[in-house]
Amino acid sequence: MKISVRSLSRDTRQLLLTRIPALAQAQAASFGATAEVTHVNGTPVLVNDEEMARFAWQVACKTFGEDRAEFGIKPLMGSEDFSFMLEAQPKGGFLLFGNGDVGEGSCMVHNPGYDFNDASLVPASSYWGALVEAWLQ
Fold it and tell me: What is one Pfam family matched by this protein (predicted)?
């Protein structure tokens, strides 16, 4: 059996990685069997630095207006390899940039129905330029 372990905090992830083998072994023992758990270290929890996330949001507000920039969105249980970068340099953040209106045919990336909205290239490029300028000031 394979499972994917995802959590929203490092402490919870560590608890899960500790408890899963104990639970698997206890459940197997209740049936007179044994269990072996092999952990392949997957993607760590992605945790944004609050200060950097707020900075990026403020630049988005200045670039697009407060009504088009969200801060503190509900955490996602996705598996994102950018978390390795934030482990190496915690003073950073991961952000989502809109790819068009929510509606028919819209979906998240890594979905066979995903269709990149080319119209988002110019606004996204403007934002990244504004973010760099703000950081260098």
Answer: Peptidase_M20
Tokens of 16: 């899960």
Rounded distance between C-alpha atoms, residue 25 and residue 4, angstroms: 18
User: CA geometry: angle at 79 spanning 75 and 83, to 5°?
Assistant: 85
Whole-number Å distance between alpha carbons of 47 and 12: 13
Q: Tell me the CA end-to-end span of the chain in Å, nearest whole number.
A: 52
Instruction: Count the Cβ atoms, other than its own, within 10 Å of residue 56.
Output: 22
3-class DSSP state for residue 71?
Answer: coil
Please spell the DSSP secondary structure of 99-125, one letter per residue.
-S-SSTT---SSSTT----GGGHHHHH
pTM, 2 dp: 0.78
**Tokens of residue 104, six digits:** 């028919």
**For residue 46, what are the contacts with CB-CB under 8 A and spacing of at least 6?**
80, 82, 83, 86, 94
Taking residue 42's Cβ as centre, other Cβ atoms within 10 Å add up to 12
